[in-house]
Amino acid sequence: MTSRNTSTARTTASRSSHVRIALIQGHPDPAPERFLRSLERSYARGALEAGHDLRTIDVAQLEFPLLRTKRDWDRAPLPAGLEKAREVVKWAEHVVILHPLWLGEMPALLKGFLEQLLRPGFAMHALEDGKRWERLLEGRSARLVVTMGMPAAIYRWYFGAHGLKNLKRNILAFCGFGPIHATLVGSVEGLSARQRQRWLDELRELGRRAS
């Protein structure tokens, strides 16, 4: 995990001039040539150029066990390897999660990371009636960037984007994130050099706008 800070002023409609951004790279493959990592670098470049504060989390570089029981979910201490990641999410005003689409969902490594990170007491809290939850991460917006082999329109309209909806509604919104926007990059393996550059430019502009 790295931390980058800048001091150039930037005005946004709903926040102070500097937005605190947590950039979570969810690709399990740490190889720098992955296009998703190029998208991450472009977003980071735009954010830093605009004067936002940026911290990054690379899930592929973290060591943590999977949760296996409800008792662990409720009571087990957070693994030491995730303490800094939790502090980054707590610090952030805007969280960007990038991941490839594997079998219609986020990769298992990213899911395991979120299960460990977004647990009771940090992300949500059960109210006394046992039927409702208090969302503890309200006030934070999110952007999801998802690459996939199929055309994005097919994923969204034919398959219903069920994995994306699950991440937005059942994980992030449940913890209080909102608004949550998504960028879907389809047919990623067949993109031409010009198309790749257009996506890189789009991510750079999203970074500038802290969107």
Keywords:
alpha/beta, Rossmann fold, two-stranded antiparallel sheet, 7 helices, 37% helix, 19% strand, disordered N terminus
Question: What's the number of structural domains?
Answer: 1
Q: Spell the H/E element sequence.
A: EEHEHHEHEEEHHEH
> How much helix is in the residues?
25-40%
So, the CATH homologous superfamily? Answer: Flavodoxin domain
End-to-end Cα distance, whole Å, is 21 Å
Note down, in words, how this protein is organized.
By secondary structure, the chain is α/β, with parallel strands linked by helices. The protein has a single domain, classed as 3-Layer(aba) Sandwich (Rossmann fold), CATH 3.40.50. The chain has seven helices and eight strands. It has helices at residues 35-49, 70-75, 83-91, 108-117, 152-158, 162-175, 193-209, and strands at 2-4, 20-25, 53-58, 94-100, 124-126, 133-135, 141-147, 180-185. Strands 1-3-2-4-7-8 form a six-stranded mixed β-sheet, sandwiched between helices. A hairpin with a 6-residue loop joins strand 5 and strand 6. Helix 1 (35-49) packs parallel to helix 7 (193-209). The longest helix has 17 residues, at 193-209. Residues 1-14 have low confidence and may be disordered.
Topology, element by element:
Elements: E1 2-4, E2 20-25, H1 35-49, E3 53-58, H2 70-75, H3 83-91, E4 94-100, H4 108-117, E5 124-126, E6 133-135, E7 141-147, H5 152-158, H6 162-175, E8 180-185, H7 193-209
